[in-house]
Amino acid sequence: MKKAVLMCAAIAFFATGCVTQTGTGSLLGAGLGALAGQAIGKDTKGTLIGAGIGAAVGGAIGANEDAKKK
Predict the structure, then answer these.
(1) DSSP characters for 6-68?
(2) pTM listed for this prediction
(3) Each residue of 23-34: pLDDT tens digit?
């Protein structure tokens, strides 16, 4: 299961190009959150919760960076 999650995260990371910092932050946050959720929860539920929280936090940070550039 861990290998499948890591493989999906790696494919999503390298196959997706983001133009804005919001998109990039969401992508990186989701990947890191999924890894943290898997490490903490050791199940799919923990992985999905971590990915969701990571995407939200990463997107918020990226949106803040985009706002600073304008």
Answers:
(1) HHHHHHHHHH---SSHHHHHHHHHHHHHHHHHHHHH-SHHHHHHHHHHHHHHHHHHHHHHHHH
(2) 0.72
(3) 888 888 998 999
